[in-house]
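Good day; I would like, with your permission, to put a structural problem before you. A protein sequence and the structure tokens that stand for its backbone fold form the material at issue. I would ask you to consider whether the tokens describe a fold that such a sequence might reasonably adopt. I set the record out below, with my sincere thanks for your time.
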Amino acid sequence: MATATYETILLDKTDDIAVLTLNRPHRLNAWTGQMHAELHAAITDCNNDPDVGAMVVTGAGRGFCAGADIQDNFKARMTGEGREDARADRREGVGDWITLLRSSKPLIAAVNGACVGVGATMMLPMDVIVASEDAKFGMLFVKMGVTPELASSHFLVQRVGLGKASEMCLTGALYSGRQAFEMGLADRLVAPADLMAEATALARQIAANPSPHLRWVKELLTVNGAETDIALVQRREGEALAKAYASAEHKEAVDAFLEKRPPDFKRAARGS
């Protein structure tokens, strides 16, 4: 196991997956600018690590992420203290969360508790959402006199439809893990004790597939998911398929099938 050290998150790499844990349990893992920067750095690190095939994001203690830290974020914004930090983030390329997640290796959100405000919007672009029965979801922006962000007005509608997205955002109500699963916000619902086992097993199942192809699939889902030009959809798929056919991993998959053995995609990628 390799472990990198951060102040507001934990990063643990084991075998072919990484677990990123939001680690401010005394504040229910409330989001801060530092947490954003550290998550960006950790995900980038995993994307650059050939041994990592997929990631799981969860929270320490009782919460996943209880929204933005009001003391560290809202008050700083109102007084202007956080504006230069935000500009610095943009200059250093750590501001575009959506681009990072949708171009990343696969990400699974393992939602263990409170997941509200930016806690909810930060996980919406992830690939699979696994919810504990103890989870609580909420788009509470209107109750704070603000509006949704991080492209959540797009991703939430994609996940649950316009009606439910409207209900969530206009009421600012809280929803249980079961309600979230039933409305399609969560993709899997598990008992609290089974959450990490379920999420990491799914991550390993995904990570067993060739890494470049996983990211090509994500790119297709991202650009084609709301595309109405079917000819363009097919053209993009054709371009990706041409790259896939020419890849060492495709040749390895065919050889493994003919030789009746499991494919070794990492060896194929190394060219050995």
Observations:
- The longest strand covers residues 9-14.
- The chain has a mean pLDDT of 92.
